[in-house]
Amino acid sequence: MKSGKQSSQPEKGTSRILSLTVLFIAFCGFSFYLGGIFCSERDKIEAKDVTRTTTKAVASPKEPTVTPIQIKSVSFPECGSEFQDYTPCTDPKRWKKYGVHRLSFLERHCPPVYEKNECLIPPPDGYKPPIRWPKSREQCWYRNVPYDWINKQKSNQHWLKKEGDKFHFPGGGTMFPRGVSHYVDLMQDLIPEMKDGTVRTAIDTGCGVASWGGDLLDRGILSLSLAPRDNHEAQVQFALERGIPAILGIISTQRLPFPSNAFDMAHCSRCLIPWTEFGGIYLLEIHRIVRPGGFWVLSGPPVNYNRRWRGWNTTMEDQKSDYNKLQSLLTSMCFKKYAQKDDIAVWQKLSDKSCYDKIAKNMEAYPPKCDDSIEPDSAWYTPLRPCVVAPTPKVKKSALGSIPKWPERLNVAPERIGDVHGGSANGLKHDDGKWKNRVKHYKKVLPALGTDKIRNVMDMNTVYGGFAAALIKDPIWVMNVVSSYSANSLPVVFDRGLIGTYHDWCEAFSTYPRTYDLLHLDSLFTLESHRCEMKYVLLEMDRILRPSGYVIIRESSYFMDAITTLAKGMRWSCRKEETEYAVKSEKILVCQKKLWFSSNQTS
């Protein structure tokens, strides 16, 4: 630079940079080329695999082989004798954890997974196979439900009476001292619709020992008895031991696990529910579950207060005030007084749209009309709403008086089937035909089905109640369970004149141990195994199944070996059967629970 000559160093640097750039571009291009070849070859491999599988499937009509899931053998231990009446989600030992407001501690409060028991619940000392229906309606073995408190407190009201080794049920009650049959006769005089098949389904809140529901069975009315686990000691267990439909439950802070417009009739015989308190919110729940044109029957306070008040530890003025408040609330909810005689009063839920329109137009009305954001059928851990659920136009043909009478309604496609995804009248007809064939086959592999050996039956995951419909002429009743996670088909079940409930099988069912003779499930594990652990579902089935009771498991072959292994660990005896069409992908497992007694038995 000092000599004035230009240096050659910049030229050499520029040349090196250009060379490196060209080399880098060439390398990238070559890599891209190799990557393209690799990817195309990989796609060819995958395509070959798919083609091979497809060709194989087309070439052979046989179903693809599925390797069944396998688990290690297991043997479940016995629970202690203190668990003999264990109800996991209504456990008295857990009540102190929850509030006393509106008795909410009596609602469902299930234990977390880490607190679930993995043991087999023993029967009480001296347990015997239940007396068979229909004799069971009148008597049961004392040792099967060994409760003395309810016997001492209610024997004077003729609820039940202990004689020797049995409880006898004379059919009495607090409000029907002349017997339940005489009481229902009076009720039928007030509600003629109970005689001609118009009224088919009913719910009895605060059911006692379910004598009302038991009497209705002979009259073609299927009643579901409802009571909490409280100081009355096992009302629901007595009902089920007698062979009468019942479920644990209470109207408190959450909706009952039933759809809207479900029951044709609701009944309360001095059930001690404070109907006029908390703004009448309990009456609003009755309004939700009773179908338009249906009835609510009340006997006891404050009905007939001018004659009865002296026996209610109150004053006539207080009872008159309570009655007027009750009547005002019912009127504001579109109930009308239908009939009254002596201790029985009847109200009817209006199906007339004009009454609900008046509530909607009156901004100051109480209770107000529920807005469209509140789903009327949402009923699994759903809070009670202080508003009136107005019937939708779709429910018009489901109103009592519009819906066909029993037994015709069992085989008529309800209007609400259109609300179920894919639901139709043809779909219901096909479903019924399918279940008739299946039940015919079931009776071949389980001859006890259809005899007096089986009374209380549960269909653990029904759709339209086809299994129950196929058994309608047999001496049984069926609890139809619709998963809270599946399509909402339970309104169709009720519209057909059957009964059921919502439930999530990841949790325990709302019943006592040893309350069902037969549990039936169809592909439950296929549908729910991603959420619910198979082991806990089967242990829950063992809890609610009676000793010597049966299980019919219709399931994918994939699960069969695992189910059989767990069943063996629960002391069930099982045998695998073919389906009615002998398909390879699906099998039937027929099991029977053995009668065993605790090794720590005191007698």
TrEMBL record:
Keywords: Glycoprotein, Membrane, Methyltransferase, Signal-anchor, Transferase, Transmembrane, Transmembrane helix. Coiled coil: none annotated. GO terms for cellular component: endosome; membrane; trans-Golgi network. It is found in: Endomembrane system; Membrane. The keyword Methyltransferase applies. GO terms for molecular function: methyltransferase activity. Its EC number is 2.1.1.-. InterPro entries: Put_SAM_MeTrfase. The chain crosses the membrane at residues 20-38. The keyword Transmembrane applies. One of its GO terms (biological process) is methylation. It is a single-pass type II membrane protein. Pfam families: Methyltransf_29. Signal peptide: none annotated. Belongs to the methyltransferase superfamily. This is Methyltransferase. It comes from Arabidopsis thaliana x Arabidopsis arenosa.
